[in-house]
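We emphasize that the prediction below concerns an isolated chain of 132 residues; any contacts that depend on oligomerization or on bound cofactors are therefore not represented. The input was used exactly as deposited, without trimming of termini.
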Amino acid sequence: MKDRLIYVEQKSGHSDDGPAWIGIGGASKTGATVYFNGQAFRSLKGSGIGSNYFDIETGEQYWISGIKKNNEDRHWAGGGEILIDEQAIKRYFKEMDVTSLPGNLKRTPLAPAKQQDHHVQIEHGLNEGVLD
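Result of the prediction step, given as a token string:
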């Protein structure tokens, strides 16, 4: 899977107004793992409530999706600002066909969307069924 703009919202410990980000996400060769902001996420395969991925290090649950053209990425019952990666702003402008950021987006630097060295061992454990 090619790198693309994604929306990521933390659900564990929050309702529909957890911390949220827009940035460039990547994926493993198989597409089984999504990388974003130095983290690695695996699909909950439909077993999450209000979430669709979990952080392979912490187990915390997240909602991950593509960005919406209408800027309504948050659940209708949620709210709050969304942080957008400074490296993703030009791409955001192009994909959204806008020249400035909406008021609910705040610039921030995020870590690269790539596999970190320590993710390899954790992912191997997940693939072997060691971590459930």
